[in-house]
Amino acid sequence: MTPDQPAAPRSRPARPGTGRPAPRPGGTPRLREAVPAKGRAASPARPRGTAGASRPPRRPSGGNALDALRGLQQRLRRAWDRPLTAYYLLLGGSLLILVLGLVMVYSASQIKALQSGLSPSYFFRKQLFAAALGGALMLLAVRMPIKLHRAFAYPLLAVSVFLMCLVQVPGMGIAVNGNQNWISFGGPFLLQPSEFGKLALVLWGADLLARKQDKRLLAQWKHLLVPLVPATGMLLGLIMLGGDMGTAIILTAILFGLLWLAGAPTRLFVGVLAFAGAIGMLLIKTSANRMSRLACIGATEPGAHDQCWQAVHGIYALANGGWFGSGLGASMEKWGELPEPHTDFIFAITGEELGLAGTLSVLVLFAALGYAGIRVAGRTEDPFVRYAAGGVTTWITAQAVVNIGAVLGLLPIAGVPLPLFSYGGSALLPTMFAVGLLIAFARAEPGARAALAMRQPALRKKLARVRRKTMRRPVKRRPSGER
Description:
This protein is an all-alpha fold. The chain has helices at 61-80, 85-115, 122-143, 146-166, 193-214, 221-225, 228-241, 245-261, 266-285, 288-295, 309-321, 346-379, 383-407, 425-443, 446-471, and strands at 173-176, 179-184, 190-191. It starts with 60 loop residues before the first helix and ends in a 12-residue tail after the last helix.
């Protein structure tokens, strides 16, 4: 080999059993040359430890925060679009409202029970019994097929009308707080038939509109209004004979919700709304009690003859609560200052004992129920499911708005309970059945049905694994030499 010729590369012996060359002496591997990407110029390798070497520019922190917010928004959107979102919102939200309502009924009704010479847990035990019975009705509504719900609408409407007529029979109907809308069954058991009239109107109206839509009759005004509006007027007349203006407002809201879902023209909708408003103002002006309630909107003083006593002390209770409340059971307004602390004004006691955090939690739960109901009504292709889900959502949302608005001093006191929250078995039973109806509709969605079918085997496997672990007896290990 001459000095001008380059030295030939030395061949290293292969590693035994692999066919690969053995590592270089000293254990330093040979660096492979980086192959530049297609369409990208190869950059020269930067030696380590070189002072003043250029580094890649850092991304601004604001961009990272914006990307994180976008990722969170996408994850939330995917979570909202899941097929079981409405199902879990309805089931979880209703149960949370019910449990929190039981706690607040027990806290708000103790002083009222003691003043009446009863046990402190008297009202709580009655509400707990009604909640257990309502749970059975909710489960029944979830398991009932849609055809059975539609067939159940007409008997329920007939029974509700019959019971509302019995309210006006002397000796059977009982007046409570000036409104004669209760039936006594002996002892402490009372029934308010108008609460079941709400459920009957939702089911019957949904079935009526669904059948007319199948026959393509809803484009005509007479088929859209008759017999829905006359039947609702009959229910409103029976309710107003007892003087229950609050329940009449909720039934009117259900009627407007059904007409809106049926696609009523704007002129027709505005005309019916104006007619209902004129009748309502006439009924308010002809009653001194209703006029005094209307005058108490936004009141900060009890006024002459303490006509705004309840409205003002509801505001006092909310103001005393502050951010996190005075503590569960520590309300001062329930000691005889605030009338009806466990029924119509239980939201005020919640604000006093649990503060703004507690009241906002209740509002969020009702908002979740309303969103889930609108989602169920908007995604279904069955007209009966759409009308029934929209009617139930209108019922619960409107009643919550009327009750909370009265407590906040934004609306007149209508005497309607807070759904699933206030004391009262007559209001709790049909409301829980209606929530079960929404849960059944949410389960019937094609995507939700498939997701539940996929989760059932996994849940059964988990339960079987837990059962095997809990039923297995611990075995003592013997020494290795012992037989």
